Amino acid sequence: MKSYFIFLIVAIILAISQLYSQVPKTITHQGFLTKPSGSPYDTTLSMTFKLYLDSTGGVALWTQSLGGVQVSKGVFNAILSTSGVAFDRQYWLEVEAGAQVLSPRRRLTSSPYALRADTANNIGTLSKLQINGFSDPLLTLESPS
Q: Is residue 59 within 8 Å of 51, Cβ to Cβ?
């Protein structure tokens, strides 16, 4: 009974920690905008962000528009919600600032979360969970297929 109680406490702590340690479903994109004269913008713009499978052409697989993106001394920062994007292949980001499509598209690269997820994805399978001598074959951890 004591082992079961300890197991239950540990399971609750692990469940709560998972709530606070979820990988965010957002990405950050920063850029630098200049006028044709070369001087940086200081303004607020509507911006649209799109993901493609190719560096040119193709159909946008994901789109997000943000109104009121602050551009200060040419620098802007946008946090994009990427729910629904699998990130299982190479993507290219296209940015539209105001009515101007910026070129070229930017290739997305790995973030620390993605590198960690790749490591976790390759850990393998545990046959059973054992805590303080208590094991439960019903609690198995398997790598995703």
A: no
